[in-house]
Design a protein that fits this description.
This is Radical SAM protein. This protein has about 300 residues and is an alpha/beta fold. The protein is built from 9 helices and 12 strands. The structure holds iron/sulfur cluster. Iron/sulfur cluster binds next to loops.
Length: about 300
């Protein structure tokens, strides 16, 4: 269905939000009110969608996220199916809070564990919850000891923008191979916290200068809104035959550009019961609007 409408044949990675529920309620979370919603994939539906994407679009990797994927009871089942049955590369994106026992259980099937942080120490804990920074660092150490490759992610906001270079150095010493930086977009909880937004683009220049001066060994990746050239104005998905990613929310709503995630701009849905993708166009959908992909660059 996606190819018939857009011409896109190949989609490299599926981001699969297994559930909305999370053990945190972060000040910037793009899910906002939906963190309380019960929508979730069953293990069977998750298996079906991964298999469909592989068959129809040659998808070779899955990133499991939420909400918090480690509170999803069938996580081990889904991870094993993705890795052992489909042969997908498996990444899990987690807040890293008290995940030890479950991580040990699935470690051999995980190619990359990406832990989200929102700053150093108290900066992180004020946005997330008390003790969450220490817990995340413990999980990083555990993952390293289990032989899992580790990445990290941070959404840049007014409170943590001055700490990015120091955090990158700390993560480097812990064996984290990549830090991915995202721009905070005013959706979900962040729409209610405008004081968290970085309003002066010059602050991003200062952050980039600090990163360059710090001579880091860790790979720091910036989404293009944080980069020197800024984002492209528009690039319709229909202009390409291959895209890097598609994301399913826990209801089955599909989003191709992460600039559209959280904005309800879906053109396609995964119908969980019928196990197929359907096209539900609207004047607000990402295909009609030509919402561009986020392109990443290295600091
Ligand atoms: S940002 Fe991540 S950890 Fe925080 S509430 Fe949202 S899903 Fe949970």
């Amino acid at each position: 269905m996606i190819e018939a409408v857009t011409g896109i044949r190949r989609i490299r990675m599926l981001y699969l939000q297994l559930l909305y529920r999370c053990n945190f309620n972060c000040g910037h979370c793009f899910h906002g009110e939906r963190l309380k919603h019960a929508d979730a994939f069953t293990a069977e539906q998750a298996r079906n969608l991964m298999r469909l994407m592989q068959r129809q679009h040659g998808t070779e990797a899955v990133t499991l996220l939420g909400g918090e994927p480690f509170v999803y009871k069938d996580l081990a089942h889904v991870v094993r199916y993705a890795k052992c049955t489909l042969g997908l590369a498996v990444e899990i994106c987690t807040n890293g809070y008290r995940i030890g026992p479950r991580l040990r259980e699935i470690a051999p099937c995980v190619d990359l564990l990406r832990i989200s942080l929102e700053g150093i120490g108290n900066t992180n804990d004020l946005i997330r919850r008390a003790g969450s920074y220490a817990a995340a660092l413990e999980s990083i150490t555990l993952a390293r000891n289990l032989g899992i490759q580790i990445g990290a992610t941070l959404t840049v906001n007014r409170y943590n923008i001055g700490e990015v270079a120091d955090l990158a150095r700390t993560l480097e010493t812990l064996g984290v191979s990549q830090l991915k930086l995202h721009q905070l977009r005013p959706v979900g909880n962040a729409a209610l916290r405008p004081e968290m937004l970085v309003t002066d683009p010059a602050d991003y220049s200062v952050m980039r200068d600090q990163l360059q001066r710090t001579a880091l060994g860790i790979d720091v990746v910036l989404d293009e809104d944080l980069s020197e050239d800024g984002a492209r104005a528009c690039a319709a998905p229909s202009a390409r035959h291959e895209i890097d990613r598609i994301e399913s929310d826990p209801r089955g709503a599909l989003t191709m550009s992460c600039k559209a995630v959280g904005k309800d701009s879906h053109a396609f849905w995964y119908d969980k019961d019928a196990d197929c993708i359907v096209h539900l166009p609207s004047s607000n959908d990402e295909v009609m609007l030509g919402i561009p992909d986020v392109v990443y660059s290295h600091a």
